Amino acid sequence: MTIRRLPDTVINRIAAGEVVERPASAVKELVENSIDAGAARIEIALREGGKSLIAVTDDGMGMTPEELTLAIERHATSKLSGDDLFDIHTMGFRGEALPSLGAVSRLSITSRPPDADSAWSVLVEGGAVTGPSPAAHPFGTRIEVRDLFYATPARLKFLKGDRTETSQILDVVKRLAMARPDVGFMVHDGARERLRVTPTSGDLLDTRLERLGAIMGREFSDNALRIEAERDGVRLDGYAGVPTLNRANAMQQFLFVNGRPVRDKLLFGAVRAAYMDFLARNRHPMVALFVEVEPRQVDINVHPAKAEVRFRDAGTVRGLIIGALKHALAEAGHRTSTTVSAAALGAVHPAANPLPAGGGGYGGYGYRPTTPSRGLAEQGMAFQAPLDHSAPIPPSGDIQTTETDMPAYPLGAARAQVHATYIVSQTDDGIVIVDQHAAHERLVYEGMKRSLDETGVSRQALLIPEVVELDEAAASRLASRAEELSELGLVIEAFGEGAVLVREVPAMLGQINAQALIRDLADELAALGDAFSLKEKLEEVCGTMACHGSVRAGRRLNAEEMNALLREMEATPHSGQCNHGRPTYVELKLADIERLFGRR
Q1: pTM of the prediction?
Q2: Beta bridge partners of 136
Q3: How far is CA 303 from the centre of its chain?
């Protein structure tokens, strides 16, 4: 077979296959060009999910007729000041987007620089160029891409429905908008406006949070922790949600390198590692992190669409992200997400059939009484009555808790325990409901980690060592980790086939069910596999132990015990969520409660 050079039209179509995978890819390239052109406002119009029309209009610097002619040629770019592919300070650099789009669509570019008397337009259809010719247009540039992939109809078969393609485009624009709060973006699809964010000015981190709130939602901006850190020339800033604000997938994790949105496994892994101590494995935090690094320290040429990057010193970047996130989470203390309280209030509804006037209701907000079933009545009798803080409470003695004590305590003073599971405390401006088991589980867990780091976990010997029977594989798995478990305060040894003997347990766990603890640990080790040390998976193992050593739901507590738990929560980092990311308490403000009863 004779070697031959491919025609330029075929070369451009091949390039289009690398750069323009779908309408969202085309929008990304065009919007990045507008950003690099200094635009303050960018408008994107769509038809049929971008398949029949993509029009991007900006108020940037515009192009002269000569620049228009060059812009549609391959490898022509204004993004490089020299020939160094690693000295890149712009969004794009390849110079392939416009000629590639012209090869697979009907492309028109109309542009006018601020100092020009008129605009000029050029047309590219299937690679054939017409123009440039005079046109009417204000300052800036408008690029229209019609009938995308008409010249390569096989590509059309791989596109999804209009709704899916529009959703992909919106995701691209939102990511670009997050990085540039100084630029306004608007997207409409002919039927309705899909996105509008206005440009903002001021401190970058403040305006960035405002923009993130507009895109990720108010709940994120209300529950975001500010992230700022720098190490070895790498700067990190942005915002991260408190652990109790989490999602079932990682779709709300946004990462940027030098202003470019990226999907990098290294960075996502760093986020997962930072939150591993606070979330269940199937839950994911909400974050928006921005990494700034000297251009020569990062390679952005590893992916045609610039979706992935490669750092020269990946360890520094990973360590910076993990350290900064963990520091912010520690600084947050016992703070929990406001959405927890919002969900609690949302679950409370006025009666569907309010009492008629004069029927005992209050302004239509009364509740129609019903006759409780016998079971419900018995449950009601099981409630522990509100505590009388003026009387001595055995066995703890007198408790002096007054209204004036409450402002000094963020979590208030205990007033009652209900269902022998939840502590109700009163603050200076509301009430707090605490899940006693979830809260104490976190406290025990943090205590175990502290002990391990400082002096080692103290142990207590069982008066009579306990034999736990397991299947042979589980017993063998535990016995092989006996030395590592002893460092965590749990002393076991093999006891024949299919059994282990428990001699000592961590002292801080108190009286525990050794049988249940060992079986849960055996399941945990089976799930984690063998290719790790227990210290590497400390959060899973300690978490399992902490769960067994915590105040269980159903245990009655007196006022002193409840207040002691509240005070320890206030003094312990991360006590706002249990080891699985669930909230340990809900705070309801007095104003919200009054609103429920029509007082506001």
Answers
A1: 0.64
A2: none
A3: 25
Cβ-based neighbour number of residue 188 at 10 Å? 14
Q: What is the CA radius of gyration of the chain?
A: 31
Residues 122 and 271 in one domain: no
Residue 509 within a domain:
yes
Under 8 Å between Cβ of 119 and 112: yes
Note the pLDDT of residue 385. Answer: 34
Q: φ and ψ at 35, to 5 degrees? A: -65, -45
Per-residue pLDDT, 188: 94
- Containing domain of residue 73, as a range? 8-197
**Pair 193, 246 in one domain:** no
CATH of the domain at 19: 3.30.565.10
At which of 278, 310, 331 does a domain end?
A: 331
The number of domains in the chain is 3
Could you tell me the strand order of the sheet in which 491-494 lies?
459-469, 499-506, 491-494
Q: Which two tokens stand for residue 253?
A: 């994790």
How many Å apart are CA 302 and CA 340, to the nearest integer? 42
pLDDT of residue 195: 93
Q: How far is CA 413 from CA 64, 426, 430, in A?
A: 71, 5, 11
Same domain for 186 and 217, yes or no, is: no
Whether residue 2 is contained in a domain is answered as no
Distance CA(259)–CA(89), nearest Å, equals 9
Based on the fold, state whether residues 540 and 431 are members of the same structural domain.
yes
Residue (of 315, 579, 305, 321) closest to 437 by Cα position: 579
Cβ contacts of 295-299, under 8 Å, gap ≥ 24: 295/86, 295/87, 295/88, 295/89, 295/258, 296/86, 296/87, 297/233, 297/234, 298/257, 298/258, 299/86
In a shared domain, residues 541 and 422: yes
Q: Cα–chain-centroid distance for residue 276?
A: 13
Residue 528, SS3?
Answer: helix
Supply φ then ψ for residue 409, to 5 degrees: -120, 120
User: For position 511, which CATH number holds?
Assistant: 3.30.1540.20
Work out the widest C-alpha separation in the chain, in whole angstroms: 101
Cβ–Cβ < 8 Å for 324, 315: no
Q: Which residues of 545-559 are buried (b: 16+ CB within 10 A; e: fewer)?
A: bbbbbbbeeeeebbb
The backbone torsions φ and ψ at residue 513, rounded to the nearest 5 degrees and listed phi first, read -90, 95
| Domain C-terminal end among 197, 229, 264 | 197
Q: Where residue 229 sits, what CATH number does that domain have?
A: 3.30.230.10
First to last CA, the chain: 85
Q: In a 3-state reduction of DSSP, which class is residue 210?
A: helix
Q: Point out the residues of the chain with pLDDT beneath 50.
A: 17, 94, 351-404
- Number of Cβ within a 10 Å radius of residue 253: 20
Residue 281 lies in a domain: yes
Q: Whose structure tokens read 């705070």? A: 587
